[in-house]
Design a protein that fits this description.
- The protein is an alpha+beta fold.
- The chain has 2 domains: about 170 residues, no CATH class; about 210 residues, no CATH class.
- It has 8 helices and 15 strands.
- Strand 5 and strand 6 form a beta hairpin.
- Helix 3 runs parallel beside helix 5.
- The longest helix has 26 residues.
Length: about 400
């Protein structure tokens, strides 16, 4: 007998339901995280409404007798529940991104609740990336020794009542993990990294937690780097909320990467020699050290630049990740020490040149270009100092 599960929609929290007779139901879906609220009228860029999108998410959940829900139940908690034991599904529209509009789906059963996420692509850029992201997440999930990216369940398409086709995929939701960003004001005994909880409250990480967080970003990304092909997770940004954090104690955090929009070679060299492989790894570290300090204040404001401890954490996390990556690639056991010695041999002016060359490749029209040009000399000098003193 087919299952029929009650379905309810909310905007962020249960005290803000979205119903077909609500004004927001007919408002156009925002096209980026810069516009989180409903707009007054539709534009050519986005003709899909909140109601269109949420109804499509509902059909995605119901398709094939709730196949997506059953997959989430099989891997979630309580894992013994069946679709017949689900009392209701609550769908929370979490945020609006340039690529996807994540909806957190809470499965309610007599034994408790579990959650997963449905990502739908409304924009052209999201539609162009969603199939690749599903593939890369699936591959990286199997590659990591521990689950550092979400397990993906199903990829499909849903047609709205207006005939628009929205591609979607379902994936694991990391309970207790939240988005974080640099901010320009912080308590005196805290870092300037503010964490946004799901109930819209906030708190600040300690300086030790912040340094640990930057180290774990570097660790995750480095363990995904392919030494021989130069493939790496390339299109990530703190401003997009690509990483989420959960404190473990007042000095340590747990971290997850929730999206992989691109996994491509850093440089195009199909038959590299050993010198090319070392150069590629150095260029990867240079890029990582810069991108890990870059954010937008409070997620959507002016460009922000993390303090010196972020670079210290990045370098420490990189070498921990390099040890894991080297073992997977059957490189010598002391490879990370050999590479550290190579870096120490670089004169400060040579490092300055390499860092400046990376920034020069950023289009001059990008606000990041001038912002980074001002900061690269001090960044490169600190980079050299940290390695020399280690």
């Amino acid at each position: 007998m087919p299952v029929n599960i009650p379905l309810n929609f909310y905007l962020t929290a249960r005290d803000n339901p979205i119903l077909p007779d609500s004004d927001i139901w007919h408002q156009p879906l925002p096209t980026s995280r810069l516009h989180q609220g409903p707009k007054s009228k539709k534009s050519d860029e986005n003709k899909i409404s909140y109601g269109d999108y949420l109804a499509a998410v509902g059909r995605f959940l119901e398709n094939d007798n709730y196949r997506v829900v059953k997959s989430a139940l099989a891997h979630g908690s309580p894992g013994t529940a069946t679709a017949e034991q689900v009392s209701s599904l609550a769908v929370f529209l979490v945020k609006h991104g340039e690529f996807y509009h994540p909806a957190r789906v809470v499965i309610e059963t007599g034994a408790g609740e579990s959650a997963f996420v449905v990502n739908g692509a409304v924009s052209d850029v999201g539609r162009a990336h969603i199939e690749g992201e599903f593939k890369w997440l699936a591959g990286l999930y199997e590659q990591f020794d521990t689950p550092l990216v979400p397990r993906v369940f199903h990829l499909g398409e849903v047609e709205t009542a207006n005939g628009d086709v929205i591609p979607m995929f379902s994936a694991e939701w990391f309970d207790g993990f939240c988005e974080f960003h640099l901010t320009d004001e912080a308590p005196g005994n805290r870092s300037n990294l503010v964490v946004w909880e799901n109930d819209e409250s906030t708190y600040f990480l300690t300086p030790e937690q912040a340094m640990d967080m930057y180290g774990k970003v570097a660790f995750i990304l480095t363990t995904a780097y392919n030494f021989y092909t130069f493939e790496h997770i390339s299109a990530w940004h703190h401003a997009a909320g690509d990483f989420v954090v959960k404190p473990l104690d007042d000095k340590r955090v747990d971290l997850r990467l929730i999206t992989v929009r691109s996994y491509t070679p850093l440089i195009d060299n199909p038959e590299p020699d050993p010198a090319d492989l070392i150069e590629g790894l150095l260029l990867y570290l240079i890029k990582l050290s810069i991108r890990n300090r870059l954010d937008r204040l409070d997620g959507t404001g002016d460009l922000g630049w993390a303090g010196d401890d972020a670079l210290k954490g990045t370098i420490e996390g990189f070498f921990r990740g390099l040890s894991v990556m080297a073992a997977k690639m059957d490189l010598p056991a002391d490879f990370q020490d050999q590479f550290k010695n190579v870096l120490r041999c670089y004169p400060p002016d040579a490092l300055q040149t390499l860092f400046s060359a990376f920034v020069d490749k950023i289009p001059a029209t990008s606000p990041e270009h001038g912002f980074l040009q001002e900061r690269i000399p001090a960044h490169a000098a600190l980079f050299h100092s940290i390695l020399a003193s280690d």
